[in-house]
Amino acid sequence: MYEAEAEYLAAGGPGRASFDVLAPYFAPDVVLHQAQALPYGGTWRGHAGMTRFFVAMSETWEVFDIAHQEFLALGEVSVVHSDIRARARATGSELAFPILQTLTVRAGRIAEVRPFYWDTARIARACDITSRIPRGDGRGVASLEVEHR
After folding, report:
1. Residues forming a β-bridge with 117
2. Scanning 16, 43, 71, 102, which has its CA 20 to 30 A from the CA of 110?
3. Residue 51 above 80 pLDDT?
4. What is the pLDDT, as a whole number, of residue 59?
5. pTM (2 decimals)?
């Protein structure tokens, strides 16, 4: 899937390349959970949701490269550690940060993706979205959850 993702992005990504190169790797009802504080935060569902997610990612990042990747566990639930090098479109800020992802695989296709970022506030600042981050309810829970279908 990561090789297909690189091929998709190299072909121009959203709006230029077809999601069809990635579709075989994702279950039709795939669910992607992104941290709410990110510019592309929320829950993205199905192939249509994944297509819109890639559009949101490309609107956020001018560059988003995997510098290093390590598969820590493989199986029904796989764990992948990636070191990212990125440049935000809004500010030109360059960042290097790790992401840890859990991928749930069902019938040979990715059914659920949960990326974990070490510092979403730093990413939000670099993307100049801190004024749009939902405020918590005093219990550490954001008052807004976004569902993308």
Report:
1. 99
2. 16
3. yes
4. 87
5. 0.82
What one-letter code names the amino acid at 13?
A: G
CA triplet 112, 135, 127: central angle to 5 degrees?
70
- Give 4's DSSP letter: H
Beta pairing class for 77-88 and 61-73: antiparallel
Measured CA to CA, the distance from residue 43 to residue 50 in angstroms comes to 10
Is residue 45 within 8 Å of 85, Cβ to Cβ?
A: no
Which carries the bigger pLDDT value, residue 54 or residue 138? Answer: 54
Q: 32 exposed, middle or buried (CB, 10 Å; 0-12, 13-18, 19+)?
A: buried
List % helix, strand, coil for the chain (3-state, nearest 5).
25, 45, 30
